Here is the input.
Amino acid sequence: MHLMDALVTHGCLIVDLTDGGANFAPALALSDMWSSTSSFFDAVNPSPEGEDVAPSLPSIDVAEGAGSRHATVGFASYGDGRMQFLETRIRRVDGAVIPPEVGAVAGDAGDVDAKMKRAFDYIAEVGKDATRIAVAAVSAEEMTFLERAPAPSGGPFSDMPFISGLTFEEAEVSGVSEDNREESEHAAQIKAAEAASLLADELIDDGRIPPPGSPSNPDESTISMSPHRMCRYAEPSPGADSSTTAKLSEIFGAHTDTSFITAVPVASVSGLEVYDETEERWYRPELAARDHWERERAENLQDFKAQTEVVNVEGAGEVELPWHSRYVVLMPGELMQLATRGEVPAAVHRVVAVTGGAARMSAPVLLRARNGMKMDVGRYLGKGGSDLAEELLEECDGMAMEDIHDAMQPSSFR
Here is the structure.
């Protein structure tokens, strides 16, 4: 399915990081990430005779030296442990994962840092790629980088695009329009792709130092603005005297994210639901990923009921990986909706759990904008889309991305 069709029509895209089994290095990285995440939550939710390490973890707060109140890190638990969140971020200068207590709880600190950073890099890269493709597609379709000569005042052609001082309609009469139009449109499409690449590399915070040639940003924070969030959701079993039977219930309500892309690695226990506007129903991408994996295994005459697969990974040899470690669900956020002039709406999504079922872990990466960067509409998106979209973009032009982030929050959260 085409990326734009999936994001616009269904609100999400499921990506196989192995490129159909060609390269399992990303799947190995995500498998290691899941192992560290599982170890962390096992330590936070110990058996009755185990040591409770939760009190030793810092509460969610602004990271030291972050430079932005949105760069929070730490641990939080709600509803008697029904929802638990560990907010982590990448320290830009050395790639370390903070808060540092994560490594101590989940295992060897250095080893956990390396595993989490490796997984973050793969997830962030695929999210940036999707953003680049979507923004370029809309800018090319809208011809926002088509060069237009100033139109003369008045006359029947005053509001039409010009080539060499002629409107397309006038130029057709002279016989020079078609070639010029094709050349101009082709040039506009190239510029749209180049501009979308600049947006992905300069605006999206992937935890790295900005590439050479990026606009000066003296306010760049030392901490990535894109969090890697470890989550655990659990719906407790009904009491022995309860007549309640196992059922599906909403544990984290429907919402959209202030991100370009929210990338959610597919979990072993499904629970993510994305609202499909076309079908007017909740769609479960994790179940769809499992269905895809089973069909692929069946076609290859392999055990499609298995929970793992044995593969060869360059540099690691033969390894056994969880089936789900190769898949990531990409959901567009509110910043994507802005950058695509409303063509790609922010995905409405929620988390559900089965009463008494297994706890669900999740590890989303929310790709947000670098602190200190400003929205430069001409540089990244071009001009000349629909009137309503242009009005909003004109309002955002020159604004700090953090201010745009703030403006997108519900008034109760500002």
User: Anything to note?
Assistant: The mean pLDDT is 86. The chain is about 35% helix and 20% strand. The two ends are 38 Å apart (CA to CA). The longest helix spans residues 109-142.
